[in-house]
Amino acid sequence: MVNPIKILDSETVNQIAAGEVIERPASIVKELVENSIDAQARYITISVTTNKDYITSITVTDDGTGISDEDLPLAFTTHATSKINSASDISSCTSLGFRGEALASIASIAYVTLTTCHEQSESGRRVVISGGEFLESTPIGAAKGTSVCVEQIFFNAPVRRKFLKSRTTELAWMYDTVEAFCLHFPHLFFRYMVNQQERISTHGRTSLREVMQTLGFDDTMLPLLDEESSFPALSFSGYISKWDRTYQAAHKIFLSVNGRRIVSTPLISAIREGYADLIGKKEFPSAVIHITIDPGEIDPNVHPAKREIRFADETAVRKRLTSVVSSSLVFSSVFADKSLPVVQEPLMELSVASERNEPGSIHEKGEDVHEPPLYPSSSSPSLFVAEAAQPIYTPRLQKQAGYRLRQTKLTQTVFEPEDATVSPILHPDIFELIYVGQIDCTFLIAQVPLENGGMVLIDQHAAHERIRYDQIMMQRKQGIGSQELLEPVILSLTPLAHAKLLDFLPLFHEMGFMLEPFGRDSVRISGVPVTCGHIEKPSVVQEIVCAALDYQDYERAADAVVKQMACHHSIRANMPLTCERGTELLQQLAQTHEPRTCPHGRPVMVHFSMEKLAGLFKRT
Ligand code: ADP
Ligand code: MG
Asked: 115 alpha carbon to ligand 2 midpoint, in Å?
């Protein structure tokens, strides 16, 4: 039997709305800080408390306009807002909020105490509201502004509570949220505290560059130079990283449109296009970009949490962004008298077989070559915006990483023979390649033993990386042993990185790392997997271990660590190989799962068929 239709009561309506607006504790921070900014606050303090498992309270205090006694009950009513009067105002509104549902939503799923003093009032008022019901309203003395304390988050939404991630992860989301506010509002004063400890403090009246420095961004980031535009009221400002400072995900790209932080896959692609071939197919720069556009050219009302916006002409915005990024890279390098790496088109299109997946290339037809994922997890993309937003690890700039090495001497370790594991796979086409020689101690040449087979060029480092990756993966299944370091390596980490590494402790132990907590925010590594082979530098241990930090998921983190282990100790460019070693390398490569790409997805080999070679010499 179908139940009769009924109108839901307001509490249920608010809880449903809360389900969309308040995804997790960080959404509360976002909504409350947005309200403070809309109330013209200059000083905003975000204070969070936790127990060992959960966030126990979030308090956002501001020195904004405050809320008058008359408006106070309305503030918690759904669709009650001081920011717009009608739908037509949305297109011209410059405030961050306009739907009037955040406070009502928060109060429907938590216990809220709001203390406020309106700018024109003598005294303040405190109200307590929970499950949508006013429990208390008392006049009290209070400083001008508003303070909202939210406790018992999701107390009446057990399902939502169940889906919350670890305390560390939720704190990481919050850090990311506050970080984005600091970056998008550098002229405001933000203070972020967790359990009374200060995590972020920005000082207002400062430049974006200074805020970025405070937040641990790379000093070498280049200013975005906007050019004259015929497109009405569209401008870009901010910073982008140099082409050699990249990440495996988009978590270091912060975008705002008229002050509103947005997540936009098309705009991230536009930025990457600006780098053209300067960055790899799976690499992402870091960027903080403020986009200013005529409010009439956007619709901010397309996402429940207002995380996405719609542009009237997205193509034009994308094109301009690509061109601004590209010209800023060129200008900065010329201005700084530093040469931009020359990007040369490959000799022939077919040569980048595995990058372009072209028919007729050595890359198997129909094989799936994916665009890199914007975020390295299958979970919600912005988690990774959150997860790695804290300056926990800058792959190619360890000085920025927020930790330092105290020990330098390591045990000399025995090199693990490469034939330790025999792969049951064999790619006969590669196994049968005839080794010809080496070019510039970097590339190998092999002949394809088929009629009109032509030749293959192989990147010796990429090939060896693939071999080592597969070997380590196999050894992982059988259990990897440890080798003790002569002197342990101590890594000093940021609190977030520390918490994350500890979350991954079982993974590190399983992989043969002897890693343990060591005082506040440090870890001690006294042993590394035998498969790491001979390790000379603690920085290598650091690089391998910290590869996990970009990831949330165990397997992805493990994969990143294995890739790093594979990369370390691989044959490098500029290493001479004997004929036997070259041949052996090809044979080992033939036994890997995916001999055509390295574990990072770069091509291992390019193929020139006889036909193509003949074409080059105009012999056709
Ligand atoms: P919205 O921000 O979309 O208007 P909210 O539910 O977030 O909806 O807030 C409702 C109203 O409460 C706001 O329109 C604003 O008038 C008032 N308000 C909320 N927080 C503050 C604050 N920190 N300072 C001043 N006014 C506030
Ligand atoms: Mg609001």
From this structure: 16
Dump pLDDT digits (tens) for 297-343. Answer: 888 776 766 777 888 889 999 999 998 998 888 776 544 444 444 33
Atom of ligand 1 nearest to the CA of 31: 7
Assessment of whether the complete model's pTM goes beyond 0.85? no
Spatial CB neighbours of 301, under 8 Å, sequence gap ≥ 6: 90, 98, 99
The alpha carbon of residue 178 and the mean position of all alpha carbons in its chain are separated, in whole angstroms, by: 15
Q: Name 253's bridge partners.
A: 287
| Distance separating alpha carbons of residues 107 and 102, to the nearest angstrom | 8
Helix 538-546 crosses helix 554-567 at what angle (to 10 degrees)? 150
DSSP strand E in 202-293: where? 222-223, 234-240, 253-257, 260-262, 287-293
Q: For ligand 1, atom 17, which residue shows the shortest CA distance?
A: 75
DSSP state at residue 245:
S
Per-domain boundaries in the chain: 10-205, 217-330, 385-608
CB 78 within 8 A of CB 101: yes
The fold of 10-205 is Heat Shock Protein 90 (3.30.565)
Q: How far is 428 from 440, CA to CA, in rounded Å?
A: 27
* pLDDT of residue 396 exceeding 60: no
How far apart CA 468 and CA 387 sit, in angstroms, is 29
User: 337 C-alpha to center of ligand 1: Å?
Assistant: 50
Query: Which element (helix H / strand E) includes 145?
Result: strand 145-151
Q: What 3-state DSSP class applies to 310?
A: strand
If you classify domain 385-608 with CATH, what class do you get? alpha beta
The rounded distance, in Å, linking the Cα atoms of 150 and 129 is 10
Q: How far apart are CA 319 and CA 317, in angstroms?
A: 6
Place of tokens 């307590």: 128
How far apart are alpha carbons 3 and 409 in whole angstroms? 74
Same fold, 217-330 and 385-608: no
Per residue in 398-456, pLDDT (tens digit) is 222 223 333 333 333 333 334 433 344 677 788 888 999 999 999 999 998 877 788 99
Ligand 1 neighbours, Cβ below 6 Å, are 31, 35-36, 38-39, 62, 64-67, 75, 81-83, 97-104, 146
Q: Is domain 217-330 in CATH 3.30.230.10, yes or no?
A: yes
Residue type at 173 in one-letter notation = W
28: pLDDT confidence band, cut at 50, 70 and 90?
very high
